[in-house]
Amino acid sequence: VRREKHDKPFPYFRKPSEIGSFSQDHDRVFHHDKRQLKHFIRPVVHDPCFDLSDGYSSLIRKDENVKEYLNDMLRWVMENGHKFALQSDKESGTGIESLNTDFICWRGLLTRL
Asked: Which of 1, 33, 42, 45 has its CA 20 to 30 A from that of 99?
């Protein structure tokens, strides 16, 4: 292996950031807002006893036989292309040549790598 072939500056990586969100209701219908967002409120007690089976009986399961792919995520991207524009693209008013992003993924997906 020739070292000079691979001896290059380390690539620049931007810190990942959220630029928007969408929701799916219990019928898996797309909504362009955060209506299904839930917040965690830390318990006041120092040693909480969480019952992980609480609410399990009312769980609405996703139909794993229905292939959803990335359709709703890509729908959001298409409706929000302006959020991906570079500053120079915004000033010129010529539109967006590309999304100016390297990849798009579900939140938490990269933690599995």
From this structure: 33
Helix (H, G, I), strand (E, B) or coil at 88: helix
What is residue 112's three-state secondary structure?
helix
- Cβ contacts of residue 24 below 8 Å, gap of 6+? 30, 31, 36, 72
CA-to-CA distance for 79 and 23, rounded, in angstroms? Answer: 14
Let me know the angle formed at the C-alpha of 75 by 70 and 81, rounded to the nearest 5 degrees: 120
pLDDT (average), residues 4-26:
82
Residue 24 main-chain phi, psi, to 5 deg: -125, 130
Angstrom distances, CA of residue 51 to CA of 22, 39, 48, 96? 29, 18, 10, 49
Residue 90: which pLDDT band, with cuts at 50, 70 and 90? low
